[in-house]
Amino acid sequence: MSTSAASTATAVVVGESLVDVLGADRVPGGSPLNVAVGLARLGVPTTLLTQLGADADGDLIRAHAEASGVTVRAQPVPRTGTAVATVGDDGSADYAFDIAWTWDPRSGPAPAADLFHCGSLAAFLAPGAAGVDALLAEAADRGALTSFDPNIRPVLLPDAATVWERTRVVAARCDLVKLSDEDAAFLAPGAADPGAEVARALVGGRTRLVVVTQGPRGCLVATPGGVRPLPAGPPVEVADTVGAGDSLMAALLTRVAARRAAGLPPIPADDDLPALVAAADAAARVTVTRPGADPPWRDEVAGLPGW
Asked: What is the largest CA-CA distance in the chain?
C-alpha cells in the first residue's frame, strides 16, 4: 500500500514558542513551534497549543506559523519568550533563554487529532508541565499516536537525575520518542555510549520506537527488538544546524501518519525502519543547508530517500 500521502492525518503540538535572537535578527523559534511548522509544510494539518504575549514577538510567531498553515491556539502571557543564540564555527547553536511555561489546562481539551506531539521546555517547566501531562493523557485515551522530544536545555532545568526521571515519565506515555546525542549525554553522564543506554531504557511498554540523532553520523534507533545505528544520507553544505532535529521529528511523524492513513502499523517493523529514518534524515539535511529553523515544504522533499 502507498504511504506517499499524509493528508488524511491531523496533528496537535503543544509547547513553547519563542523568538530566536540571532545578532540583529529576530526569528521565530522553539522546538514545538518548529515541529508544528514542519508538519504543516509536509502536508499534515496541524494545531499548535502555545503561549504568546501581546507584543511584536508574539505577532511575528503567529504570522510565521500561520503562513505555513499552522492553526495557532495561544494562551496569553505577559511577554513572548526569547532565546539569544550564539552560533559556533561548526554551525551549532547555544542559547540564553528568557521564557516561562504556565499552561493552564482549564483552557479546555486539545482538538482531536491523529498525532499528538509534546516537547522541550514545556514538558519540564512547572507549573505548565502539568497541563502538558493532562493533554497527553487525553490524547492517548482518544487513541492518538503520541510523541515526545525532550530537547533538553540544561540552563533552565534541574540536575540530570531529576530531568531523567521526568523524561522517563513523559516518554512512557508516548509511542515515539526522539532525542539528540547531546540530550543523551546530559541524561546519562559518564556512560560509555549514552545514546544506546538512554534508548534502551526508554523503549518498551507503550514506547515502540526511540530515535537518537547523531548529526552527520546518522541515528541510533531502538525498538523492543534492540538498538542499531542507521547512517545519515550524503553530506551537504551546512549553513547551520538550527531546527534540524525539529525537521527530523516532523518528518518522522509525517511518515508515521502516512503509514497509519494507508492502513499500515504506524511504527514500522525493524526491516522498514531504514526507509522511515532516511525520510526524516532527508528533511533534516534540507534544513541545515539554510540559516535558521526553516523546515522543508513537501515539494522540497519529493523524490528524496524515503519520500
From this structure: 49
Amino acid identity of 226?
G
- Amino acid sitting at position 95: Y
SS3 for the chain is: CCCCCCCCCCEEEECCCEEEEECCEEEEECHHHHHHHHHHHCCCCEEEEEEEECCHHHHHHHHHHHHCCCEEEEEEECCCEEEEEEECCCCCEEEEEECCCCCCHHHCCCCCCCEEEEEHHHHCCCCCHHHHHHHHHHHHHCCCEEEEECCCCHHHCCCHHHHHHHHHHHHCCCCEEEEEHHHHHHHCCCCCCHHHHHHHHHCECCECEEEEECHHHCEEEEECCEEEEECCCCCCCCCCCCCHHHHHHHHHHHHHHHHHHCCCCCCCCHHHHHHHHHHHHHHHHHHCCCCCCCCCCHHHHCCCCCC
**CA 71 to centroid of chain Cα atoms:** 17
Q: Is the backbone peptide bond immediately before 194 cis, with ω within 30 degrees of 0?
A: no
Model pLDDT for residues 29-84, shown as the tens digit of each residue:
999 999 999 999 999 999 999 999 999 999 999 999 999 999 999 999 999 999 88
Q: How far apart are CA 227 and CA 249, in angstroms?
A: 19
Which domains are present in the chain? Answer: 11-298 (3.40.1190.20)
